[in-house]
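Onboarding guide, step 5: your first structure request.
Type a short instruction followed by the sequence, for example:

Predict the 3D structure of this protein.
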Amino acid sequence: PGGFPRPGTPPRPPPRPRGRGGRGGGGGAPPPTAVRLAAEGRAVAVLDLDEAACGETVKKITEAGGRAVAIGCDVSDSAQVDAAVARVVAELGAPTILVNNAGVLRDNLLFKMSESDWDTVMNVHLKGAFLMARACQKHMVDAGFGRIVSLSSSSALGNRGQLNYSAVKAGLQGFTKTLAKELGKFGVTANAVAPGFIVTDMTAATAERIGMSFEDFQTAMAGQIPVQRVGRPDDVANAIAFFTGDGAGFVSGQVMYVAGGPLN
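The system replies with structure tokens like these:
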């Protein structure tokens, strides 16, 4: 699925190095972000559909002397989002930094894509970001300070086999720019990070699906990237850390492509 060749078909160049998201605080690129923000003195709530999946991230933070809590939450469900934010307030204090990074993939070509494939991706990425931002913004406005960072993707520029994913990642860029205009006067900034090819479990699964070893897949992708290497989760964490820092108060409504070079 997803426009990639099946094993055994004649070889063709690998797909362009578009981005792949993580599923939440327990998988994909987000754990280094949580650890990085905790190292900067932030108390971190790590949300994932599976609360247990956040355990290692929380353990790593607390063992280093930081404060963190794992919270199970389906970000596409408003009741669960409100309950999760209430827990954050009770256990860590009012949230003034939000990183919208929950994501799933349901790749397929248009004629094969089901309504469920479309709705699932829309609900997790776009509706989830809306519900989380809506639930957290009051606390940011009350504090006179806030940072909202949403994970877009280089797939926002279009990527074969990712109609749903490309659409939501492009949508998150418009979402970000609108939040920046609405919330700026309250001391709240909104920015987006758009990764290119990042080494995660999801990109490893893509390599397996197209019948390549992950090592060969990374080598092929690196050859298409100007800096001649693939991205690492820490590269994404560095960008998020910048946007959430005190020094980024005059940067809002921006999209930073973390892709190793220009994409077009």
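Each response can be followed by summary notes, for example: The longest strand covers residues 188-195.
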